[in-house]
Write a structure and sequence with these properties.
about 85% helix, about 120 residues, about 0% strand, mainly alpha
C-alpha cells in the first residue's frame, strides 16, 4: 500500500525532527512542554508501524486512529510552543509537517472506516 509507506516515512522523519526540537527546547531551558512533545511526536510513527503490522482491518483502523490523535496532540504542543514564545524554532517547518501528517492520517482513517462500514 503506497499510502502506508508514505505515512510511515513521513512519521519517522517527523519523529527525528521532534527529537531535534526537543534538543532545542532543552538548550533554551524549556523542559515541560518539550517532554510532552517528544512523547506524542514520536509515538505517531510507532502507532503507524503497529498499524501496518496489524492482524486485521479493525486493528489497523484502531492503531491509525491512535496515531491521528497523537498527531493532533503534537500539533497542540507545537502551537503552544509557538504562541508562548518560550522557544525560538522554525515554527513553519514543524506546523507544515504536522499538518501534512494529520491530513494523511485523517484520510486513511476515513477511508478504512468507510470500507469497514460498507461490509
Amino acid at each position: 500500500m503506497q499510502k502506508d509507506n508514505l505515512i510511515k516515512d513521513k512519521t519517522f522523519s517527523f519523529a527525528l525532527l521532534v527529537i531535534e526540537l526537543y534538543k532545542i527546547c532543552k538548550s533554551q531551558n524549556e523542559f515541560v512542554i518539550s517532554k510532552q512533545l517528544l512523547r506524542s511526536g514520536t509515538s505517531i510513527g510507532a502507532n503507524v508501524q503497529e498499524a501496518i503490522a496489524g492482524f486485521s482491518e479493525k486493528d489497523f483502523l484502531h492503531k491509525m486512529s491512535i496515531a491521528s490523535k497523537e498527531a493532533r496532540e503534537t500539533q497542540y504542543w507545537i502551537e503552544l510552543l509557538s504562541q508562548s514564545k518560550m522557544v525560538q524554532f522554525d515554527e513553519i517547518l514543524y506546523k507544515n509537517e504536522i499538518q501534512s501528517i494529520v491530513n494523511i492520517l485523517t484520510s486513511i482513517v476515513k477511508t478504512v472506516q468507510q470500507k469497514l462500514n460498507s461490509k
